[in-house]
Amino acid sequence: MKRIGIIGGGASGLLAAIAAAEQGQSVTILERNDRLGRKIPATGNGRCNLSNRTLGKKPVTDEAYHGSAKTLFLPVFQQFDLDRTLDFFQSIGIPVRSEGDRLYPYNLQAASVIDALRYRVEHDSWIEICLQQQVLKLSFEKGKWQVRMKDMKRTFDAVILTAGGKAAPQLGTDGVGPALASALGLRVTSLSPALVKLKLDSPYNKRLSGLRMDACVRIGVKGNWLRSYMDEIIFTDDGISGSAVFQVSQAATTLLQKKKQPVIELDLYPELEAEALFSMIRQILDRVAEKPLEEGLNGILHKKLIPVLLKETGIGKDRTSSSLKDREIRAMVQFLKNWTLPITGHGGFQNAQVTSGGIHGSEIGTDLQSKRFPGLYAAGEVIDIDGDCGGFNLQWAFSSGYVAGTHAAQEKG
């Protein structure tokens, strides 16, 4: 019987433990918190967005994933795909429902997911759970893995790193997984927040705070656009948030980390081409010709946005609706379709849903075993792969955890 140590009891660690135990191996979960899976209930706004239906459509692609290890997604996912994931959750009493392409537990309660996972591992005789155990050092000595904590040392035939990254430190993450890998000499890319709000250099932050609307968002440097996405944006006291921003934030945080000067471009009317927007504004203003301009624009723009538009285009608010020249309306259109603002920062790991960066993809095989250290595996957020919003990160955690646990159990020591 092999002894397998799992460092981290989050989503990927729990699946790794279950998979290894199913192979009849002795498993020990080492978790620094006082309970398992603390981060899982925080996902999907407390509803636990388990996965995404697009991953069940052929051909499956890795376009929702980013990082040096994104090429690992498909070969790993093929070993534990969406059907197997849903079957697994059915087997532990969690039926699934969909909202659009997003998949949730049927009762829309994240707590039920972690309760079911905890019950599964706590009632498995092959699994030992050690809580409040902060791993300080990991070493490979005489063909065995030595794991040192503050008050004890354990020896294993194989170790699976599933300690996550640095996102949401209030839930117990501290970057120990990448740090342990780096201490062994593995290549680890810099860690930065992803799926996080962005801070903007704008005089209108507080004025627009709370405004929600659909928009197309682009991130880049000097016109070199790296990522774009269309969905909801939310203006905040110091910048911008919302699902569209989360989807592109990884590009912004990476650029900031590299001391670049990223900008965000907002298309506030993505459903209309520029000429169609021009025609709509022209027609409406002509029909309410005698109204003050602010009143004339009231049916087209959110009230909070009107003074910003007039300020940025240099058009006086005391003008009548019919007095605007075509060139002035085109200036409005240019602003509404291409509002560009400097990005000065982000919400930090405290407000991030996931970590960008981690163990470089070149260090790990498709069995998720280290190419340099036999018996060392990794899964989940500790690897340099992060996904878009919509259940993609939890699916990676589930698939990679199960695959790592299976191979760690089956590999002959």
Can you describe what's shown?
- The protein contains 13 helices and 21 strands.
- The chain folds into two domains: 3-193 and 355-410, 3-Layer(bba) Sandwich (FAD/NAD(P)-binding domain); 197-346, no CATH class.
- The strands form six sheets. The chain has a six-stranded antiparallel β-barrel. The protein has a five-stranded parallel beta sheet with strand order 7-2-1-11-20, covered by helices on one side. Strands 3-6-5 form a three-stranded antiparallel beta sheet.
- Helix 1 packs parallel to helix 4 and helix 1 (11-22) packs parallel to helix 13 (392-410).
- The chain has helices spanning 11-22, 73-77, 82-91, 110-122, 176-183, 205-208, 243-257, 274-287, 293-296, 306-313, 326-337, 348-351, 392-410, and strands at 3-7, 26-30, 51-52, 65-66, 96-99, 102-105, 127-130, 135-141, 144-149, 153-156, 158-161, 188-194, 198-200, 212-221, 224-236, 239-241, 263-267, 339-346, 354-359, 376-378, 386-387.
- The model has no long low-confidence stretch (mean pLDDT 96).
